[in-house]
Design goal:
With about 240 residues, this protein is α/β, with parallel strands linked by helices. The protein has a single domain, classed as Spore Coat Polysaccharide Biosynthesis Protein SpsA, Chain A (Alpha-Beta Complex). Strands 3-2-1-4-6-5-7 form a 7-stranded mixed sheet, with helices on both faces. Helix 5 packs parallel to helix 8 and helix 7 packs parallel to helix 8. The longest helix is centred in the middle third of the chain and has 18 residues. The chain is globular, with a radius of gyration of 17 Å. About 40% of the residues are buried.
Length: about 240
């Protein structure tokens, strides 16, 4: 099973190369797709020098995390995909455990659940609230809707017809998976919350809630998962 690691990159100069080295070192069959979303300083030369096998794409201007993920997804060729932030909050070494959980639950999506007890209280309660709202609106029992580590079949992710440009892509993925009736399995992952340079803010809860409400009306297009084979896609 080949894993596509989708890495949206925006101004993570100090962490991205070391993070990508850790991703590259994980002993699983994978491809790493990085999309620089209009960073002030391009890290392309440093990344290519350290990791020549990484596939690099760029947006001329900042379009948002969701737009970068969609560009990376359009280039993915793996059987399954996962999103990887370019900072040092998540542990790529957890991929193996996530893949093992997927192997034990064929047809499911695997969510890596974080321990948020050391996170800023306002952000922690914000995460709890949007997860609670997701559970109420869609009848789920999730513990960490906003987690970056969502491991799922690439064709399923394509079938979601994602349109979010910012951080609201996370609730969009979750809400549409629930609308499809896909089973979500949760497993613990490691997480080191950072405070400096954090792009997500409490105000991002507003587009999150609006996205959840919009997705209540979303209807999946029949056959969408098979309609965009990776070898027919452009650079995004």
């Amino acid at each position: 099973m080949k894993l596509s690691v989708l890495v949206p990159l925006y101004n993570e100069d100090s962490t991205c190369v070391e993070l990508l080295k850790r991703v590259d070192a994980v002993p699983v069959d994978k491809e790493i797709i990085v999309v620089d979303d209009g960073s002030k300083r391009s890290m392309a030369d440093e990344i290519r020098k350290a990791l020549p096998n990484v596939r690099l794409f760029a947006h001329p201007q900042n379009r948002g995390k969701g737009a970068a993920i969609r560009t990376a997804l359009d280039q993915a060729t793996g059987d399954v995909v996962i999103i990887q932030d370019a900072d040092s909050e998540y542990y790529p070494e957890d991929y193996e455990g996530l893949l093992a959980t997927l192997g034990e639950n064929p047809g499911a999506v695997v969510y890596g659940v974080r321990d948020l007890t050391r996170r800023d209280p306002l952000m922690r309660w914000g995460n709890w609230f949007v997860t609670f709202a997701t559970n109420v609106l869609f009848g789920s029992r999730l513990h960490d809707m906003e987690t970056c580590y969502k491991l799922l079949d690439r064709r399923v992710m394509l079938s979601l017809d994602l349109g979010g440009n910012g951080f609201e892509i996370e609730p969009e993925i979750t809400a549409k998976l629930l609308r499809l009736g896909v089973r979500i399995v949760e497993t613990p992952i490691r997480y080191d919350a950072r405070t400096d340079g954090k792009k997500l803010s409490p105000m991002d809860g507003i587009p999150t809630m609006l996205m959840l409400l919009r997705c209540l009306r979303w209807q999946p297009a029949s056959g969408r998962a098979q309609s965009r084979p990776a070898d027919e896609l452009g650079a995004g």
